[in-house]
Each structure stands twice: as C-alpha cells, then as structure tokens.
Amino acid sequence: MASVGLTAYGCEHDEAAMFRELAPRFGLDVEITPAAATESTAALAYGKLCVSVGHKTPVGEATLRALSEMGVRYLSTRSVGANHVDVRSATSLGIRVETVPYSPDSVADYTLMLMLMVLRHAGSVMNRARMHDYRLSNARGRELRDLTVGVVGTGRIGRAVMQRLDGFGCRTLAHDIRPTAGVSHVTLDALLESSDIVTLHTPLTDATRHLLDRGRIEQMKPGAVIINTARGALIDTEALVPALERGRLGGAALDVVEGEQGIFYADRRTDPIGSRLWMRLHALPNVVISPHTAYYTDHALFDTVINSMRNCLSFEREYRRA
C-alpha cells in the first residue's frame, strides 16, 4: 500500500529547506529532489500517493502515466495555476490535480510596483543613471490618481490589487467571467475601451489564451499600458510588439511572457535568445520585463510549501476512507 508521503519535484534550495523544516510537523515522509517530474524521475515517487511539482516544467501525459504506475493518485502544483499540467490526461489516469493558495499580497505588491515603474519610465531612467546619464527624460510620467485601471480577473490576487489601488485615488473597473460578490463588473469590451491601464489576473485556459489578441489590443485606448503578472500566453505577443513599436500602446510591464519556458530561470548572458520577436520586445524603452518572479517572497514560499503538505494529508485521509 502507498505510504503517507510526498515526493516534492523541482525543489530549489529554499523550497527544499522549507520542506525539511516543516515536514516533521505533519509527520510526512517527504522525498525532496531538484529534478523535475519526468518519465525518468517517476521512480522517486514509488509507493507514494502524492507528488508536488513546481510551475517551471510541463507535466505531460507520458510523465503522468509513469507516475500513475508508481502508485501516485494526487498531484499538487506549487502554483495558483495548473496550465502546465495535462489535467485531462491526469483525470483519465485517476490522478487528481490541485493548486495551492498562497499570499495574494506577493503578486499584488509586485503588480503595483510594475504599474508605477512603467508609468514613470523607471526602466529607462535607471538604465541611463547606471551609465551616469542623469538628464531628465523627454517623456514625463503619469500619476495613478488621474487614470482608470481595468482589472481583468477578480480572484484573490485581482481583489488584492484593487484594494491597493483604492489608496491611489484612481478609478477602477473590473471584469471576470465569474463575477465576484461585492465587486462591480463591466464587460471586457467596456473595460478595454475605458482603461488607461489594463492589468491581468485571470487563469490561463483554452478560453483565455490570447485574451488580448490583435483585435482587443486595437480596442484599447491609445497610449494605454498593459501589466501582466498572471500568464504570458494571455497576450498575443505577435500583436503586442508592433502595437508598442508604433506607439499604439504606451507601454507594458510583463512578469510573464509568452514563450518564457527555457528562457526564464536560466542564465542567458552568453547564450543568445533565438526569438527575434522576444528581442524586439526587450529592446523597447517603454517595456519592463522581469523573470516570472512576482510570487517569490518569504511569505508566499511558506504558504506554498505548507499548503502542499496540507493538500497531501487531506487527500490521503480521503483516499483511505474511500
């Protein structure tokens, strides 16, 4: 019979240390590995009901089948989204997939930072200062209180962003396919047409892939700014880049970028990035890019690790009763 245990795949040093520190509280046998969950590493989960995976590596049908053969019946991803997991295949193999909640403040704080950076041209200002060019830019900044911010997705993170925006005195609009109680919602069309800033906080699904495509970008106010701390593929990059280049949009601050796999979380200083589209995006002075790091705080790390173990124990109790 499978043991009360968990194999934690893809653990960075800090995650591994947190698992080791917290596991004794739960009486869990945790196998910790920096390796991603793959067909070749599935044996590390032998005899365990539960595995935990990170968001950096796709988990496809072949990997899931190998895990199933090892006795795995539950997969917890240390993220709020599961778009990197083939959930349909997992379900057909009898493996339940769940995400973990963590502090929405980590991403909400970062979203406001990016918003302010792009409005004040902070990226180009700091780059010039680093080269000892201290002249004022010709492009003046804008103040949040004068602007309308459209929040797409009113889950925990989207609501936390809206709470922070209240303190800046700006007008906010909200849209979600499942409206949240207590939040006034508008249609996506109305939000895009009226917002000076559009910030994305919705999951990536088949329905939301390229949510901001060429047509919707053209709907946006001239000079509007896009903030994305959710998932890169919510935006069609092939439509975004020319809209930025010709000044149709006023800027973008992106913590996630379509096609980031294999680029983010790696040192690419001496390893050229082959995508011309990516390099065009990087070259724009009105674009801020960071490597999918909005979630990365001490508080959020604690939440993801402890909730991964709670998820495992909850499933194990349910499984034993069945």
Short description:
The protein is an alpha/beta fold and 322 residues long. The protein has eleven helices and eleven strands.
Structural write-up:
It is a single chain. This protein is of the alpha/beta class. About 35% of the residues lie in helices and about 15% in strands. The protein folds into 2 domains: about 5-105 and about 300-320, Rossmann fold; about 105-290, NAD(P)-binding Rossmann-like Domain (Rossmann fold, 3-Layer(aba) Sandwich). The chain is built from 11 helices and 11 strands. Strands 7-6-8-9-10-11 form a 6-stranded parallel beta sheet, with helices on both faces. Helix 9 packs parallel to helix 10. The longest helix has 24 residues, at about 300-320. The protein is globular. The protein starts with a strand and ends with a helix.
Number of contiguous helices = 11
Order of helices and strands: EHEEHEHEHHEHEHEHEHEHEH
- Backbone structural class: alpha/beta
Oligomeric grouping of the chains: single chain
Number of separate domains: 2
Give the end-to-end Cα distance, rounded to a whole number of Å: 14 Å
User: CATH top level of the largest domain?
Assistant: Alpha Beta
Task: Give the CATH H-level superfamily of the largest domain.
Answer: NAD(P)-binding Rossmann-like Domain
Radius of gyration: 21 Å
Instruction: Name the CATH architecture of the largest domain.
Output: 3-Layer(aba) Sandwich
- Could you name the CATH topology of the largest domain? Rossmann fold
